[in-house]
């Protein structure tokens, strides 16, 4: 890998971004996690003329002489700078381009200032601020991924899913990212906005797909990693990918139709949603839930959830055997395979009677 130390202005990053030649978050990068306070502190440092930590940028020039740039390390800094001047938006936040430095201490001269409040001279100095940039040339994607992992060993620790995104590529992780791009998770509080920033929605969707493939599995990082590794070697599409995607969509669509208010129910908890999803996916593999059974099905699930909550609150509560078994498996170590299997079997026994064999249509 060839690399050179250079100085680039903030204006250089703006120009490359507006040209469409700057990739701020390559696939291996973590999602934006900085708070407004962190962004404000960075911008204040720039306005004060203070140095900013070095930024690593991969440079790729094609045979036509066109050059593109990808921020390997420093995306939070670059994104904050572009957001402040109003040319980039954090997709995980519902905010307009640009932000005000309202999180700065009261004694800061820049408190409550936004970019448009700066005078022409201040704007010129802001765009002319020199940034230390390490340009990486003649580097393969694997070399860049390895560098990213090494750099982040000394910074905020990457969580398991962020490490997967920095390690694996291929059709499985691409499918996970596609399916996780759904407002359903945040809207219903199944995965919070803060966890989505740390890619926990990707991890959860990974577990749901694994559950469809092989039934309840443990939630340990090693277990999920093994599935990512299993599908790593397929270039375009892994075996049964289309079937898996259809089963996932069929299951999620049924849950959405049945429980438009799921955020108010026990089943919005990730532990419980996982069990509900994997059980329903298994039942739908060869069965259907007739619309005539929707009402009774929902009532049974509501009653089951009530019994589970009652048993968790009181070990001596008089509830069904299935609810008692589910409650025992829903507490400590709830992501262990044995406990997931216990919940799976208990919930399956309670709801399978509502499903009917699917009618095969002639082709």
What does this structure look like?
The chain is an alpha/beta fold and 363 residues long. The chain folds into two domains: 155 residues, no CATH class; 192 residues, no CATH class. Helices cover 50% and strands 10% of the residues. The chain contains 16 helices and seven strands. The strands form two sheets. Strands 1-5-3-4-2 form a five-stranded mixed β-sheet. Strands 6-7 form a two-stranded antiparallel ribbon. A hairpin with a 5-residue loop joins β3 and β4. The longest helix is centred in the C-terminal third of the chain and has 20 residues. The chain is elongated. About 2% of the residues have low confidence.
Radius of gyration from CA coordinates = 25 Å
How far apart, in Å, are the first and last alpha carbons?
A: 56 Å
How many domains make up the coordinates? 2
| Strand adjacency order, main sheet | 1-5-3-4-2
How do the SSEs run, as a string of H and E?
Answer: EHEHEEHHEHHHHHHHHHEHHHE
Largest sheet: 5 strands, mixed
Strand content: 5-15%
How many E strands?
7
Low-confidence stretches: 90-96
Give helix % range: 40-55%
Our count of helices gives 16
Overall 3D shape: elongated
Average pLDDT figure: 88
Helix/strand class = alpha/beta
């Amino acid at each position: 890998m060839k690399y050179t130390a250079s100085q680039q202005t903030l204006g250089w990053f703006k120009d490359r971004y507006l040209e469409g030649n700057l990739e701020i978050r390559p696939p291996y990068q973590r999602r934006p996690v900085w708070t407004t306070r962190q962004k404000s502190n960075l911008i204040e440092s720039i306005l004060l003329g203070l140095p900013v930590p070095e930024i690593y940028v991969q440079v790729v020039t094609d045979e036509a002489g066109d050059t593109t740039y990808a921020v390997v390390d420093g995306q939070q800094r670059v994104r904050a700078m572009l957001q402040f001047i109003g040319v980039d938006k954090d997709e995980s936040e519902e905010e307009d381009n640009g932000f005000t430095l309202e999180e700065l201490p009261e004694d800061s001269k820049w408190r409550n200032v936004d970019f448009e409040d700066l005078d022409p001279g201040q704007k010129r100095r802001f765009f002319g601020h020199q940034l230390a940039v390490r340009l990486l040339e003649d580097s393969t994607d694997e070399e860049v991924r390895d560098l990213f992992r090494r750099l982040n060993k000394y910074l905020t620790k990457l969580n398991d899913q962020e490490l997967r995104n920095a390690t694996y590529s291929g059709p499985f992780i691409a499918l996970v990212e596609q399916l996780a791009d759904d407002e359903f998770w945040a809207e219903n509080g199944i995965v919070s906005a803060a966890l989505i920033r740390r890619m926990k929605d990707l991890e959860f969707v990974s577990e749901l797909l694994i559950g469809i493939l092989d039934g309840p599995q443990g939630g340990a990082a090693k277990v999920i990693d093994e599935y990512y590794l299993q599908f790593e070697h397929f270039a375009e599409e892994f075996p049964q990918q289309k079937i898996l995607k259809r089963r996932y969509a069929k299951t999620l669509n049924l849950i959405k139709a049945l429980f438009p208010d799921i955020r108010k129910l026990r089943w919005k908890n990730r532990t419980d949603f996982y069990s509900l999803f994997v059980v329903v996916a298994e039942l739908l593999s060869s069965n259907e839930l007739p619309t005539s059974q929707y009402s009774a099905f929902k009532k049974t699930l509501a009653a089951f959830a009530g019994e589970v909550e009652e048993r968790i609150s009181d070990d001596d509560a008089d509830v069904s055997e299935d609810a008692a078994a589910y409650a025992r498996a829903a507490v400590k170590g709830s992501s262990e395979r044995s406990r997931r299997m216990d919940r799976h079997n208990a919930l399956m026994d309670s709801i399978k009677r509502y499903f009917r064999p699917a009618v095969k249509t002639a082709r």
